[in-house]
Amino acid sequence: MDFSFLANNIVELTVTGLALGAIYALVALGYTMVYGVLQLINFAHSEVFMYGTFAVAWVFVFVHGRTPSTQTLGETIGLLLLSLVAAMVVSALIAMLLERVAYRPLLKRKAPRLMALISAIGASFALAELMGLRDRVAGWVGLRDDLDAYVAKARDTYSNPVTIQPQTLFEVGGYGVKDVDVMVILASLFMMLALDQFVRRTRFGRGMRAVAQDPESAALMGVNSTRIIRGTFILGGLMAGAAATLYMVKIGSTRQDAGFILGVKAFTAAVLGGIGNLRGALVGGLLLGVSENYGAALFGTEWKDVVAFVLLILILLVRPSGLLGESLGKARA
Amino acid sequence: MLLEVEGLCVNYGHIEAIRDISFGVEEGQVVSLIGANGAGKTTTLKTISGLRTVRAGRVVFEGKDITTLPPYERVALRLSQSPEGRGVFVGMTVRENLDMGAYVRNDRKSAAYREDLERVFSLFPRLQERERQVAGTLSGGEQQMVAMGRALMARPRLLLLDEPSMGLAPKLIQQIFAIIREINEQGTTVLVVEQNAAQALKLADTAHILETGEIVRSGSGAELAGDDSVKAAYLGGDV
Ligand SMILES: Nc1ncnc2c1ncn2[C@@H]1O[C@H](COP(=O)(O)OP(=O)(O)OP(=O)(O)O)[C@@H](O)[C@H]1O
Ligand SMILES: [Mg+2]
Question: Where are the annotated coiled coils located (chain B) (predicted)?
Fold first, then answer.
């Protein structure tokens, strides 16, 4: 174990860990909200995120052309805003489609939760494979796949033509904190705050909490649960789209299977914080991001994921309902 | 007739929970449904509020056939229910629960809303004291008040109450029934399901007795309360 490495790089490890954790947290919100209203893990949420990352990549290519270049964050701000909108729209649409095709027909027939889970796993594979075959799909509808520079093979990594060069924003303990990390953390916090307020203050949010706590009573109050469930998927999609944009800023490339590992991490974050709990997703995400980084520093990068999941098991042994524990329905203002 | 129920049949799988139930509720009345455990009282109410689907029969509210309307649309027609076991939102405060009752009205800032809230608080002063308390930490009696107050916040023309006296102390039962009468006198029609036949018959303009899914006796509350066979079966002699 390399304690001196951890100690010497603690600021950097913490900041980059928080940035990654903030992305986990945004994706975790999608798992946690759907769980809140349906008591169901939306296994395909990882694909909602992955489609968002491609939306970002496509906006970059569309606006910027295909000549690779390196820019600073400041130079790309407009491009990022545009990709944010595109990713949020695409992710929300995919989430809506999932609800309509993979869930609603089953729930309507009162299928057991297990069936819905299987259906979601199927949807997840189908969406990922479809993205993997995107060049052929484009071919079928008569479009030339115009992106060969970035899509040599369907399953290859799809990199942004614009590489964002992190700049030092300020120094802490000899480490220059990068603008990209700061933006990722701040933007995630902002999105989460907005969501939290939305759920607490709007009529939709009250309906959502009511459905989460007692669907039958909610119906008696005049809440249309189908609409609430659809809206919940959409909200989760919007958050995943935002996460996808930040991910593309920070990581800079995506693949058709990029959702898988990130989805597992985000789901872990949701469980860590207490599934069904919005604030739990934030706590779980940040904790996971930071401890992963510390673990990688101590034991070596190849142990990063092991550390993350050992942490999950340890915390669940002590607190089976996660750190903050309570459900969305019971979350208090 | 404010509400007409015609030939209602509801099944749970192959089990017939209610068979050919027909009755009406006149505007301004209190109607009681009484019967033993499993007689089908809750099923009848849930079918009226839309939580259960019918195998046969019709539910007509204000002359409109609502048999196939989803529950959330029935609330908007001003038909609201306080469910069996109260069904309060345990993680919300008393006030948030009452707000949920007004969900379909969507007028939380208006004077009318404020007025209705005042009315609920004057019927249940305890709720005003507990406005900011989380409903899950209230006593059973207080939760019953929340459930009734919440149903009133939808401004119902017809209020459905499923066993409002369940699990309450005798003194509180008296109080709850007095409040139901007051609600009725203020102009809300009430359909109440009860195990406590003595109180329910005392209150009712019209009452129906359910046995294994069918109505076996109907009459005015006083008439049934004075009937020997009803006394023997439902009142245990102590009216
Ligand atoms: N969800 C359900 N699934 C299967 N059977 C049910 C269901 N709900 C009720 N039943 C059955 O339907 C019949 C009527 O039940 P219901 O709840 O309407 O009775 P009730 O008169 O309200 O009784 P109680 O006074 O005990 O509340 C019972 O035999 C019950 O077992
Ligand atoms: Mg009952």
Answer: none
**Read out DSSP for B69-132?**
--HHHHHHTTEEEE-TT----TTSBHHHHHHHHTTTT--TTSHHHHHHHHHHHHH-HHHHHTTT
Chain A closest CA to B156's CA: distance in Å?
Answer: 11
Question: Please, where are the H alpha helices in A158-277?
Answer: 179-201, 203-213, 215-220, 225-250, 258-273
DSSP label at residue B59 = E
Domains recognised in chain B with CATH numbers: 1-78+156-239 (3.40.50.300), 87-155 (no CATH)
Contacts of B49 in chain A (CB under 8 A): 220
A110 touching B (Cβ < 8 Å): no
Taking only the tens place, the pLDDT of each residue in A167-178 is 888 888 888 899
Domain boundaries, chain A: 26-168+175-259
Who among A222, A326, A331 is closest to B75 (CB)? A222
Q: Is B3 on the interface with A (CB under 8 A)?
A: no
Q: pLDDT by residue (tens digit) across B74-106?
A: 999 999 999 999 999 999 999 999 999 999 988
Partners of B75 on chain A (C-beta within 8 Å) are 220-222
B62 membership: H or E segment, kind and range: none
Q: State the number of CA atoms in the 13 A half-sphere of B89 facing the CB.
A: 35
Return phi, psi of residue B40, to 5°: 115, 15
pLDDT of residue A160: 83
- What is the position in ligand 1's atom list of the atom closest to the CA of B41? 21
Ligand 1 in contact with B40 (CB < 6 A)? yes
- Please indicate if any CB of chain B lies within 8 Å of the CB of A220: yes
Model ipTM over 0.85:
yes
Mean pLDDT computed over B36-45: 94
The C-alpha angle with vertex B41 and arms to B52 and B85, in degrees rounded to 5, equals: 80
pLDDT of residue A151: 46
Mean pLDDT for all residues in chain A:
88
Q: Which ligand is nearest to the CA of B18?
A: 1
